[in-house]
Structures are given as C-alpha cells and as structure tokens.
Specification:
The protein is an alpha/beta fold. The protein has three domains: 108 residues, no CATH class; 133 residues, Rossmann fold (3-Layer(aba) Sandwich), CATH 3.40.50; 42 residues, no CATH class. This is Carbon monoxide dehydrogenase accessory protein.
Length: 323
C-alpha cells in the first residue's frame, strides 16, 4: 500500500480533484475484532490500484483495491464485505459484494467504496444561439462545458482532450471542417455538426475521412424530435449525446471518454494487471508496491509478505503448496 503521512486524505483527494484524476474513497463502516481496522478508517484508491490510507490488513487491502478499481470503471458505489474463509458473519448479503480471503487471520469488515469520477466535458464551438443553447442544456445535464469562439486564435483547439466526451460544432459556416478535424485528431469520440443533411454530407465528403473517423461524426447531429427553436435543437443534440453514453456509443473509462470501438484499447482500457497469488489463491492488483518474487519460472505476485515467504520456502523444498 502506498501512503503519505505528510498529507491528509482530504488533501490527497483535493489534489486528485484539481488534476481531474478519478479515484474511489473506501470507508470502513463496520469492523469485527480481531481485524485491525476500525469504523471510520478510510483509504483512497486510484484507477491503477495505488492506495493512500488504511482500511485493514494486507488481505483486506487487496480486496478493497480491486473492488475500488472496478468501482471507478463502472462509476457505481459498492458495499464490500470482507470475510474470513468459512466465517458466518454478516450473513445478509443483499446488495453487497462479498470477498472471502483465505489468508485473513480473523474478523470481518464492511467497507463502502464510492467512486469519484471527474465530470466529462462537452466542447461547443460557436457563438450563435444554437451553440449557446447547447451550452445551457449540457450544463443542465451536469456536464462541464468548454465553449470556443471559432473566430479567435486556437478556436478549434480541444482543451483537455482526454476528458472531452463530445465536441459540438455549431458555427453555421466558417471553417467547420477544420473544427471537425481538430476534434477528431484530439481523439474526441463523438463529434456533432449542426447542419442540414445535405450541407453536412457535403462537408464530410470533402474531408476524405477514414471509415472510423466518419463513424465518429454525426450530422445532422441530434435526435429527430421536430425541433425548430435553438433550445429544442439543443435538447435534441444532447439527447443524442446522452443516448450514445447510455447505450454504449461512448465508453467512459476512469473519467475519460473513448469511442467504444476505438483502436487504443490496451492495458488502460482493460484496467490494471491482475495476478493470482500462488499460495492463497487471492487475485491481486499489480502495482509498484505489490509483493513480488521471481524464480526460474518467472515473476510471481502475492497478497502479502507471508504468502511470498511461504512460496520461497516451498520452492526451496521446505513447505508444500497451499491446496
């Protein structure tokens, strides 16, 4: 576990918030002796599994770590019950996730894990009534909004592109192709152009877009609700953005946006690496602080130093592997 005694958890959380770094706050709400944790103990966990604070012994930490990582990815809070193997504590399990840890020495814990994910950003380009109405509608829905004036220098630039969920081009003329290209090159997964069907198609046909890029551009943007006024058009635009989020067109992972079919998958999209402790069988999230040893068969990761020492002794012929 990573900790920093010089800073309080509130200071660490404030730093994460300022940097738009997603995290989960884990709070012990019930503890049964002889566990070392007490009600009210807290820890913060980042998407890569780094932990700050204290919520119990090493085996409890690993259960909290991987549950928190999943909670951040899902964006949903979790009540985690950490029980020793064979224990009959806290039997009521409705609505809770139960983790049974073979290496837990005793006692049971209930820990509430709440993800804190930065608000996604909607990037709006334009200063006409429809653009301003989209700004108002997006804010009403709880998005953070960045509006750019296309006539200003750098008006097409997408600030904090990793956090931008959608870029809406509502300039009604001007360099719309340049604004679309800037959004695509910044990796924005949903790009919407406010235009008629005929004009929008003509603009895209002249841009020589690849098939994946063309799939990310929506024009005329908005769900057809017969909208006529700027507020109605803004409602239809944001309805399509929300539908893309809720129905899988935009994947939001760790507080950043990415196209659901984006090429940049890799480890970040799948989450941090997980390995199985060869002694106790617990799944551990691999971080720089995870207990590890390497032998002729390669690297191995463990929930605690006790399991590692058992593995080393077993490899030397002193102990049998846990069954």
């Amino acid at each position: 576990m990573t900790s920093d005694d010089r800073r309080s958890l509130d200071e660490v959380a404030a730093e994460f918030t300022d940097r738009r770094t997603p995290f989960a706050r884990a709070t012990v709400v019930r503890a049964q002796p002889p566990t070392s944790a007490r009600a009210g103990d807290q820890a913060l966990v980042t998407p890569d599994g780094q932990m700050f604070g204290f919520v119990g012994g090493q085996c409890a930490i690993e259960s909290v770590r991987q549950t928190a990582v999943d909670s951040i990815a899902d964006g949903e809070g979790v009540l985690l019950r950490v029980l020793p193997d064979g224990a009959d504590a806290y039997p009521e399990t409705s609505g809770a996730l139960v983790a049974v840890n073979p290496c837990l020495s005793g006692g049971a814990l209930e820990i509430f894990i709440q993800p804190v994910v930065p608000t996604p950003i909607i990037h709006v380009i334009g200063d006409k009534p429809i653009a301003l109405a989209v700004v108002d509608q997006a804010r009403l829905l709880g998005f953070e909004v960045r509006r750019a004036d296309p006539d200003e220098a750098g008006g097409h630039d997408v600030s904090e592109p990793d956090a931008v969920m959608a870029s809406i081009v509502a300039t009604h003329g001007g360099d719309e192709a340049g604004a679309i290209r800037a959004a695509l090159e910044s990796g924005v997964p949903f790009v919407g152009l406010v235009a008629s069907r005929t004009r929008g198609a003509a603009i895209l046909d002249a841009m020589d877009l690849s098939a994946p890029e063309r799939k990310r551009v929506h024009t005329p943007v908005g769900i057809d609700i017969g909208a006529r006024t700027p507020p109605e058009i803004a409602l239809s635009v944001m309805a399509q953005v929300v539908a893309a989020i809720r129905q899988g067109g935009i994947a939001v992972t760790h507080g950043t946006a990415a196209g659901a079919d984006a090429d940049a998958a890799g480890a970040d999209a799948e989450g941090p690496r997980r390995e199985v402790d060869p002694i106790c069988g617990m799944t551990v999230v691999v971080t720089d602080d995870t207990v590890q040893c390497t032998d002729e068969s390669g690297p191995h990761w463990f929930c605690c130093t006790g399991c590692r020492d058992t593995f080393v002794a077993r490899s030397a012929g002193g102990l049998q592997a846990a069954r």
